Amino acid sequence: MDITFDENGNYYIAEAGGHTYGTKPPRAPEARILKVAPNKKPEVFFDQVVPMTEIKEEDSSEDMEEGLIPPVTGVTFYKGNLYVSHRSRYSVYNLETGEFETIINGLPSWGEFLNAKPIFKDDKMYWFLSTQGNSGVIEAHWVRVIDQFNKPEAREIPGEDVTLTGQNFWVPTSKVKLTEADSIRTGAYSALGDTTTAGQVVPGEKIANGAFFVSNLDGSDIKRIAWGLRSSFGYRFSPDGRLITTMNSANPMPPRGLMFDWEPIYEVVQDEWYGWPDFYSGLPITNERFGVKKEERKFVLTPETHKKLLKGKDRPRQPLAKLSSHSATQGMVFGRGNMNIPETNILVAEFGTIVPVFKGEKFHPNRPPGVPPESEAPEDVKYNWPGFKVQQVNLSTGKATDFIYNKSGLPASADQGGGLERPIQLEWDKEGNLYIVDFGVVEFDDTGMNAHPFTGVIWKVSKK
């Protein structure tokens, strides 16, 4: 999932562990941190994991024992410590004393999207807490995660008081232990099975989903920067000090799915609301671009709430760039001159589509009902395996160009040709080499998303 380097030339690899989606075989390797010393083989550095039985028994990670809660999503070296992001927690490993301590705990992160890697500036820690689901209401994949962890009360948390329109949705719930029903009616910002009414107010909280935060290095004095974002694994400070983030697009997951959302790149600005769960890539969910079924694309927040959160603006802050629909942008870094990449440009790891129809007719000949053929999709949309590569993005123009990719345009597993599979994170070492963390093989079928263990790769890219 991630890689970082200390001042002595050692590097540390965060392995996610199981319990993110499904895995094949059913049990994935446990979450852990590996250490690789110069000219040495990888060794297990830290692998203390909270038992799954305890995770299921306790309502909050604050009540669980010390250790990793899978998946691990990031690791960052800073001033003698490894800072580790994992489900609902941020923890610190002191490289001098060997002490492991959780410094931020109990985050609302029991969905399919998670809290992401910490980054640092001026002795402050910056971090992102993703939304737990796709578009404000629990969906089928999130139901499976809730079922696996036994967290039936999980729901999205808004950053300010929001008033609901009373939209409720039939959430698919087949093949889970939580209920025998095939679907359960559920509202936005609500736990599974809780319906909402027009005019209902959901109280906001400081620790909200879809938000950026800054804290002291010990996890104290947490302040929120902005919210109304969706899911990000990649954010860095630009040379001129701006916080820039990738954003993973919304997916066509029932019951409130979107088609053809872009993968936006944003500047994160203090006290902004970026529009989620009613705006995507700067556009309202009601925009014709996103739709297959109009009834699934109504606002869940009232116009008065939009006006309040937008502070009088007609729309949220717009993206700096919009990358290909459903290419699944993840980690990012700013450029380095030794690779002929301007320092104001970014490199973006594109995990690659998980939406089967985007694999084209050869690999997925049967389109779901209501999904148009490529010829009738928006002009910029192609069903040609978007993602599975590293792109360079000019933030001034918004233009993206391929930087590292397979000649076939396919992931290695699709054509057995070798090369990149699903890039998820990027990092530079002090010599200016680029490291690509490749998650490995992930399939999407009738049982959901399934990751294949032992298929991940670390790629090192050097200039000749």
UniProtKB/TrEMBL annotation:
Gene3D superfamilies: TolB, C-terminal domain
Superkingdom field: Bacteria
The protein, known as: Glucose/Sorbosone dehydrogenase domain-containing protein
